[in-house]
Amino acid sequence: MTDEVQTQPISLDDLIAMRERVEIINGEIVEMAAAGAIHQIIGSNIFVVVHPLVIEKQLGAVFYDGMTFLMHSPARRLKDSFVPDISFIRNENIPVNWDPNKPHPGVPDLAIEIVSPGDDPDDLQTKRKTYLAKGTEQVWIIYPQTREVHQFRRDNNPEIRIYKEGEKLDCEALFPGLVLTTDMIFNLPAWAIK
Predict the structure, then answer these.
(1) Which of 15, 78, 83, 187 has a C-alpha 20 to 30 A away from that of 194?
(2) In a domain, 100, yes or no
């Protein structure tokens, strides 16, 4: 006899009915870590630079914190369902028949994950790999503690690029003409610097 725990498959209806914010990673429900002010400030710093350019150039849609992506999982048995901190979808990748009141059935073109103290590193790496394997063009993992941005590209060119203080991110493939630096991302008010 084994001590294996049998879990019920999670459907889209189950996910929508849940009151707490969760993600599904390899069929398992994972509660989302609480985010603090630093997390929100960093996310806002990115969003206020990216969003106007996306609107001006009519590139697609950019979402800040809370957009759920079903990662091409079947609605009756969700294997993965991720909620990136910031996401971007190109116009041509917005499904024609998608009900925008429901989670996006596919993947974002860009997923940005801002690491919070309670985040599980293994889950974060599993999500990164899943995003890229299922078609996400780029994944950026933002590390507030070390003030680094790790940029992963689906085309592996390069496989990973690590941006440190004072560096300009290569955003041209996603956002032509955008200037975004690590200093802009990690620009914190004096009260938030400890």
Answers:
(1) 83
(2) yes
